[in-house]
Amino acid sequence: MIAFFPTIYPDELLYSQLARYYAASGYMAYTYAAEDLFASKIVRPDIEFVNAYTTEAWEVITRVHPMETLVMHHTMFPYYGRFLPLERREAAFQALVTMAGNYHNLLPIPQRKGERPRCLRYCPRCVLSDREQYGETYWHRVPQMVGMRICPEHKCFLKDSSVQISGKTSPKLVAAEEVIPLADEVVVSSNDKESQIAAYMVEVFRSDVDLESQVTAGQFLYSRMENTKYRSVRGQQRNIRLYHAEFADYYKDLKENWFTELWQIQKVLTDDRWNFYEICLMGNFLQVSPRNLALMQLPQKSQQQKFDEEVYRLRNLGMKYPEIAKALNASYDTVKAIGEHRYGTYHKAFKPPHKSGSKPKNWQTRDMALLPHVKKAIQTLRGDETTRPKRVTVFAIEKMLNLSSKEITLHLPICFAEIQRFRESQEQYWAREVVWAARLILSSEVSLTWRRMRELTNMRKANLKACVPYLSSYADDDLRREVLLLLGKTDNV
User: Does residue 15 contact residue 156 with C-beta atoms inside 8 Å?
Assistant: First the structure.
């Protein structure tokens, strides 16, 4: 019977509240408390999220705040779930609220084999503040954010406790007051970049999570590259190598930073990675405010649309194509092609021809309606680790969706912009295909040979050599090394 239950503190983990209840209740053993709290008495308490609770426990836990509020403000869902694709984000949230379904499979929780177990962390100065204000300390959420090394408020390094988050341990409830020393060494960081990132991350973390937004982190960050040196003047081409080089230099003093490779950045931009820490690093580098990163609103018009409209405006003013090209810092051929409607156009005055008697289509409505189908088609073409990837092109998408030729290019700017995010050269596609094949071969615990590679890809050695410069965009160093060895090359290639 649960006679007394403590009030939850600001930013406190739900696990911490249960641990404080256990410490104050005088149970003879954990199993007795587990019978009152959990649907299964042998369950291991989930430190970062929730468990399936007994009816009585549910009633006392949700007496002040509904479970929806507890999940948002007293679990690590805003960290792991914020940047997930919409359907997966919704499914993870509902699984937590209802305590049904395997949310661990939906949330990108780090499970790095061979690394030391993660432990609950704390800020020594926050501990002192808690004890002064509440008479006890507790487990805060913010220190548990992977990638957070210092306290955003006090700028001192976080400390590991003896309570393991990951790893195989016996089920138990451990209150922070029981294991955190009364006096602790405080080491303040002098790393400005570390402080900057910590402050940025916590502001994003504490922002509301939009459970209905269809905008992805990759889409948003790509849009924030508009009108920068990382995208061409019209926005169709991107210079990810330059972005990566300057990104790496910007964060060179950031300690224990695992997000350093070009292929990792590429995966975020193509929505294949949703790591909170990594997305915050990219947002901060692009000078996106924490609030805007949390909201992730796309501009009403893309860079391509605004560029094309500017070409038409200047053309209507009587300027010639060479003058327009100079004014916009673009090539003459590009400007002329836009002016003559040989590229996809956003010119409002331009009306596509239609048959006499037929109703003109509402292209804007059709554009928005087709966008989810285009996204799904893109993911199908790109494949996953079990299916062979295909090159993403406008033609391929139109064929999959049974659309007329050039319908996307001429009339569906939002869909076209989404496809352009995944635009790649033939060599880049070969690199993706090679990486897929190499992973598949090595996962079968057989050696990587040219014969096996050719059987899967039907690729010539010349194609394989041509894609070598792009391997680092899609593969880690170990996999890249395996492919280079296959070619008989060195790591310096």
Answer: no
End-to-end CA distance of the chain: 68
Residues in Cβ contact with 263 at an 8 Å cutoff, skipping those fewer than 6 apart = 472, 473, 474, 475, 476
Question: What contacts 24+ positions apart, CB below 8 Å, involve 360-368?
Answer: 361/411, 363/411, 363/412, 366/411, 366/412, 367/411, 367/412, 367/413, 367/414, 367/415, 368/414
Give the residue ranges of DSSP H helices in 124-273. Answer: 124-134, 176-179, 192-205, 217-223, 240-250, 262-269
φ/ψ of 339, rounded to 5, equals -60, -30
- Token duo for residue 457: 């890809």
pTM: 0.75
- To which residue do tokens 């889409």 refer? 219
* pLDDT tens-digit readout, 73-100: 999 999 999 999 988 999 999 999 998 7
CA 337, chain centre distance (Å): 36
pLDDT per residue as tens digits for the range 182-210: 989 999 999 999 999 999 999 999 999 99
d(CA 65, CA 281): 33
Q: Where are the domains of the chain?
A: 351-423, 426-486
